[in-house]
Amino acid sequence: MKTNVGMGEESGREALYALDPACRDDRHRRWLLDVAMQSSGCLIAESGGSIVGYALLTHTFFGNAMIDILHVAESARRRGIGTRLVREAVRLSETPKIFTSTNESNIPMRALLAAEGFEHTGTIHNLDEGDPELVFFRYS
Ligand SMILES: CC(C)(COP(=O)(O)OP(=O)(O)OC[C@H]1O[C@@H](n2cnc3c(N)ncnc32)[C@H](O)[C@@H]1OP(=O)(O)O)[C@@H](O)C(=O)NCCC(=O)NCCS
Question: Which residues of the chain have pLDDT under 70?
């Protein structure tokens, strides 16, 4: 089935909340999503009329582009959708470098980032206990 990647619109907000289980309990995540939608930083992937993934692109990470969130519906994983969203974020990046981060334990995301040319550039401890946050970057 064909997947389209484009800008998220306010009308799709509830679908995004439903797609990402973290949105159900995490008000901050919902707030991030709302702000991204208002500032054209919410990328969505649609397939068969449904939203199957999204990424939030901001430009406030020490003045650099940052993929704040990347999430693909469980049922749609391993079909290249995460990669498409990351590539679109890189394309839309307004700075020469783009950053993102993930937990050390997140093997799928780390593999995706390595395949897309991101390099590990730093580690933040004390966010999730016992599972450091690894920061990655690449030139956009
Ligand atoms: C991480 C995530 C975004 C990947 O999305 P996806 O659409 O499944 O990724 P893709 O299909 O584009 O995969 C690209 C490559 O990443 C790697 N990869 C993806 N999922 C993997 C897995 N479960 N195990 C190992 N490698 C994996 C592979 O190298 C894959 O290429 P291949 O399928 O040709 O082998 C998705 O698993 C997800 O939404 N996870 C929950 C949220 C999350 O962890 N977000 C990222 C951190 S904030």
Answer: none
pLDDT on residue 34: 87
Residue spans of alpha helices (H) in 1-106: 13-19, 21-25, 27-38, 81-92
Q: If you measure from the C-alpha of residue 114 to the centroid of ligand 1, how many angstroms do you get, rounded to a whole number?
A: 11
- What is the pLDDT at residue 36? 86
Domain covering 3-139: architecture: 3-Layer(aba) Sandwich (3.40)
Burial of 80 (0-12, 13-18, 19+ CB in 10 A): middle
pTM: 0.96
Pairing of strands 97-103, 119-124: unpaired
The protein residue with its alpha carbon nearest to ligand 1, atom 14, reads: 112
Tokens (6 digits) for 90: 């890189």
